[in-house]
Amino acid sequence: MTPEVFVDIFRDALQIIVIMVSAIVLPSLAIGLVVAVFQAATSINEQTLSFLPRLLVTLGALMALGHWLTATITEFTLELVARIPAVIS
User: Fold this and answer.
1) Residue 61, domain member (yes or no)
2) 89, containing H or E segment
3) How many domains does the chain have?
4) At what angle do helices 47-88 and 3-42 cross, to 10 degrees?
5) Containing H/E element for 1?
6) Which of 26, 55, 57, 87 is close enough to 31 for a disulfide, judged by CB 3.0 to 4.6 Å?
7) Tens of pLDDT, residues 25-84
8) Long-range contacts of range 57-65, CB-CB < 8 Å, 24 or more positions apart?
9) How far apart are CA 23 and CA 68, in angstroms?
10) For residue 82, which phi and psi values (nearest 5 degrees)?
């Protein structure tokens, strides 16, 4: 296994991880920002008010993107398995 092959595989894995995590986290961050602005405007300092919407949006993103996330990681795994002969030799 040459270092270039290892770096390519590692780069692809990191890229997929960043895309998958950002697809889940970014909607939660946006809702957290909206709730924080709402709390600042109304002077409501309830901790559960910011937690529950973020939790629901994160679960909704997982439900909406679950098929795509599974397909992406499966495709990457199959690509890794197909690369085994090239990596060994």
Assistant:
1) yes
2) none
3) 1
4) 170
5) none
6) 57
7) 999 999 999 998 998 898 888 878 889 999 999 999 999 999 999 999 999 999 999 988
8) 57/27, 57/28, 57/31, 58/24, 58/25, 58/27, 58/28, 60/27, 61/23, 61/24, 61/27, 61/28, 62/24, 65/23, 65/24
9) 10
10) -70, -25
Domain around 49 = 3-83
Q: How confident is the model at residue 19 (pLDDT cuts 50, 70, 90)?
A: very high
Q: What is the pLDDT at residue 34? A: 93
Structure tokens at 56: 């629901």
Q: What burial letters (b/e) apply to 10-22, b meaning 16+ CB within 10 Å?
A: eeeeeeeeeebee
Any domain includes 11: yes
Would the pLDDT of 89 be above 80?
A: no
